[in-house]
Amino acid sequence: MQAADCLPLWWARDGAWQILKASPGGDPDGSIIAETGAPVLVVHVLDSDFATVQAASPSGPTWQSVLSSKMARDYGFPEQWIGDPDSVTSQAVAWAEEAGLQPDPAAVRAVLVAECDPFAEDLVFALTNALGFWFDTGADLLSLDGE
């Protein structure tokens, strides 16, 4: 993430897993998978209206989608990113299982078809929970630096 020139804002942990909120939302490339040897999930939130989701892993399962698809369509976001909820659910569940998680397929699909109410960030946490992550309350990294 340092190579992507991001400012870390918030961080939380679930065992060996970590979640980081950074600004601006840099795009870590495949090197993060090579460096960690672990699956990666990257979410970009646009104006709290919708979010893009990309996931990849060292052994191959990948998927992408958006959260709050109606809003993404209103923004003119490409339809191929939105995808079929059933197909994306299958891909996301396979990715999570390969990552050693215990996803809830029905909950994953429910998040994929949900619309933000009111913020897309809420869907991000609903998705991470549906995939099997349970992050702690986290830490505000800016306040740790005294800013």
- Report how far the terminal alpha carbons are from each other: 20 Å
Low-pLDDT segments, ≥5 res: none
**How much is the average pLDDT?**
82
Shape: globular
Output the structural class: alpha+beta
**Secondary-structure element string:** EEHEEEHHHHHEH
Residue share in helices?
25-40%
Going across the major beta sheet, what is the strand order?
2-1-6
Count of β-strands: 6
Beta-strand residue percentage: 15-25%
- Gyration radius from CA atoms, angstroms: 15 Å
Number of distinct helices: 7
Largest beta-sheet details: 3 strands, antiparallel
Task: Describe the fold and architecture.
The protein is an alpha+beta fold. The chain has helices spanning about 30-35, 70-75, 80, 85-100, 105-115, 120-130, 140-145; strands spanning about 5-15, 15-25, 40-45, 50-55, 65, 140. The protein has a three-stranded antiparallel β-sheet with strand order 2-1-6. A three-stranded antiparallel β-sheet has the order 3-4-5. Helix 5 runs antiparallel to helix 6.
Brief account:
The protein has 147 residues and is α+β, with helices and mostly antiparallel strands. It is 37% helix and 24% strand. The strands form two sheets. A three-stranded antiparallel beta sheet has the order 2-1-6. The chain has a three-stranded antiparallel beta sheet with strand order 3-4-5.
Give the topology.
Elements: E1 7-14, E2 17-23, H1 31-36, E3 40-46, E4 50-56, E5 63-67, H2 69-74, H3 79-82, H4 85-98, H5 105-113, H6 120-131, E6 139-140, H7 141-144
Antiparallel strand pairs: 1-2, 1-6, 3-4, 4-5
Helix pairs in contact: 4-5, 5-6
